[in-house]
Design goal:
387 residues; alpha/beta; Aminopeptidase; Alpha-Beta Plaits; 2 domains; 8-stranded mixed β-sheet; 4-stranded antiparallel β-sheet; 25% strand; elongated
Length: 387
């Protein structure tokens, strides 16, 4: 089954929504304009309930089917943008300096709005659809906030599904996998405490830069020599700050970075080894190290039955050979993981075509992908709810 005819008719309208949202990007939980736009549209569509302020600024629209009682399927889109300066030059480019939709959340929101409009018109299902519009995916754990605000129980959500665009995957195609699909993420912060002094007399100081350099090198062995080669892990040092001038050995140095894993056991072992390495090397050099591990999002894990179901629905929309069911897990993270911890469901990628990559100032969501994502949402809801 290809693109739904009614959805194809809506393409220009949904494109206009998407491009409007692109002009007004907002960060984290401060998505007030976007949430208001979403809520107004859901009310215009005739949703049975439109509830704002879930997880601070999230919006949920409830659409009840006309075929009787049944389960409630949650469909989730994220609304927030990124702190980047856009360089696309598009006529609908960001109107807010230093903020842009560089991850396609404007497209995700527009696709779910399109699906909500169609489902509110037809209601050809049992039970209900919960259209979930989430703030603060980009590092703010908005998915966790909505779950902790009681969203699942309040609306009786029985399963939940998410979707994200993927640059490089052709428009009209989908990609998914069973089990872990996106990584857990954490940050580490290491402060090396040495002894400052004159750069011409290093023997009278304890140089935290030299100690920090050794720590950077040694941290690379966590993955290369301390992790099973069949387990995925990333330890990247992304910050090294020390000193202010050329002739002074500083008192301290700061190192920071990210940790990505696909299994909790690997996460725990990695956290432990970072502390052991930093503290051990510092002590051996006569210095000390303070280590802080900040745990962010858990692994995004697709559930088996819901993944098989999503593959079947995607194949109906895309056609034979246009759905990759064995996508290699990505080491990026996604706070939809919290929703998948609360309910069974799965996360899928939809093709964005040959575009700039995510989190790039030249990125733009591909509006040709809109009908494919909308059609997927519609058929998934109708089939999950026993059309």
């Amino acid at each position: 089954m290809p693109i739904i005819n009614r959805v194809a008719e809506m393409h220009d309208e949904v494109t206009a929504w998407r491009r409007h949202l692109h002009t007004i990007p907002e960060l984290l939980y401060d998505v007030h304009q976007t949430a208001a736009f979403v809520a107004d549209k859901l009310r215009e569509f005739g949703c049975d309930e439109v509830v704002t302020g879930i997880g601070r600024t999230g919006v949920v629209g409830i659409i009840r089917g006309r075929l009787g009682d049944g389960p409630v399927v949650g469909l989730r889109a994220d609304m927030d943008a990124l702190p980047l300066t856009e360089v696309t030059g598009k006529p609908y480019a960001s109107q807010k300096p230093g903020v842009m939709h560089a991850c396609g959340h404007d497209g995700h929101t527009a696709m779910l709005l399109g699906a909500a409009k169609y489902l509110a018109e037809t209601r050809n299902f049992r039970g209900a659809v919960a259209a979930i519009f989430q703030p603060a995916e980009e590092g703010g754990a908005g998915g966790k906030a909505m779950v902790e605000d009681g969203m699942m129980d309040r609306f009786g959500i029985t399963s939940v599904f998410g979707m994200h665009n993927m640059p490089g995957l052709p428009v009209g195609e989908f990609a998914i996998c069973h089990g872990p699909i996106m990584a857990a993420t954490a940050e580490f912060r290491i402060t090396v405490n040495g002894k400052g002094g004159h750069a011409a007399m290093p023997h009278k100081a304890i140089d935290p830069i030299v100690v920090g350099a050794q720590i950077v090198q040694a941290l690379q062995t966590i993955v290369s020599r301390g992790t099973d080669p069949l387990d995925a892990a990333v330890v990247s040092v992304t910050q090294f700050h020390a000193g202010d001038t050329h002739n002074i050995i500083p008192t301290s140095a700061f190192l920071g970075g990210t940790i990505r894993t696909l299994r909790q056991e690997v996460s725990d072992a990695t956290y432990r080894r970072i502390s052991e390495i930093a503290e051990g090397i510092a002590a051996a050099c006569g210095a000390s190290a303070d280590v802080e591990i900040i745990i962010n999002y858990p692994v995004t894990v697709n559930h088996a039955d819901e993944t098989e179901f999503s593959i079947r629905v995607a194949e109906e929309i895309a056609g034979a050979g246009k759905v990759d069911p064995q996508l290699r897990p990505l080491m990026a993270s996604e706070d939809f993981s919290y929703m998948l911890e609360a309910r069974h469901g799965c996360f899928i990628f939809v093709g964005n075509g040959d575009t700039a990559n995510l989190h790039n100032p030249a990125y733009d969501f591909n509006d040709d992908a809109l009908p494919h994502g909308i059609s997927y949402w519609v058929r998934l809801a109708e089939q999950a709810l026993g059309r």
